[in-house]
Amino acid sequence: MSLPPRPEIENLKICPHGALNYAELRAVGIAPESVIDFSVCTNPFMPPPRIRKMLSSIAIEQYPDCEATELRERLSEKLQVSPENILVGNGTTELIRLIALAYFRPGDFVLILEPTYGDYEVACQIAGAKLVKQWTGAENNFVPKIAETDRLIKENHSRAVFICNPNNPTGKYLSRQNIEMVLAAVGDGLLILDEAYLAFVEKTWYSLDLASQGNVVILRSMTKEYGLAGIRLGYAIAGSNIIDNLRRVRPPWNVNVIAQKVGAEVLQDVDYLEQTRQKIKEAKKYLIKELSRLGFQLIPSEANYFLMQVGDAKSFRTILLRHGIQVRDCASFRLPEYVRIAPRTMPECKKLIATIGELMKKGGLSF
Question: Is pTM, for the whole model, over 0.85?
């Protein structure tokens, strides 16, 4: 008889994500390189061409810098935050799990505002924390009622609160006033403010000063902003005491040398990044206009992605995939009637619209 895992692990469900499922594609005979992937919300125009050329000069035979010193210094210059207040991770998902490992105890209550990124729940379950969920649906335009958030925090004496801002998958962006109200309610607990998609919000408010409160962790994703999904890169900003605690539970060499070097380099391409943001804005505007013309109901979003109501999201995704296009089925967010779409290059966006239009004419796609 094999040794069973901890009960928290035995009942743990793997969180579904966007991006290509290579086993699925192989089973249906579709080559991954032939699929246009609208299911991921990364910058499709990054990284700059010179970065690809740089990869051949990286010393992959050496262990990476455990502290990602150069990258942290570059981030420090960009953000005007001390390097001691920055921790680099193998994507923000690793940092989420480090926070749970360092701070959550079995039986602690942790509040999650749903629908949202599923790995918050996974991290809590691994740590043995108890989940408190606040659901916000279409009836409220997917905007959470902060008064209810306040009540849930206080009733359950929540040790921590996860807020994705802008939220994934809804794209709703909470104001500073709303976040400060949550922070006041959480008291001595921990507020994890996940700003993975902040770079794609047009009008933002400054949040980094909240880290000085001593109980706030701000997460940001270079994976999303700079189109680095293949190498995984994110960082946390927090008080030095929190960063020190996260460093204690962080695996050694958690950020590989390629990620560190590429991350440090792309931070210098400010103009190129801004150009890509404008292209993403134009592509999103085009998609919204054309999908609305085709009769779809879209949920307004302040991020680079948006929800679209399609009836049966699983079927909608499967049909499009057969034609070399992938969108995000949102059933894992408990939104089985929605797909999430993130803009890509304009030619790819035009192909998406043309494909959906043709399928609708032929009766092969309904909603």
Answer: yes
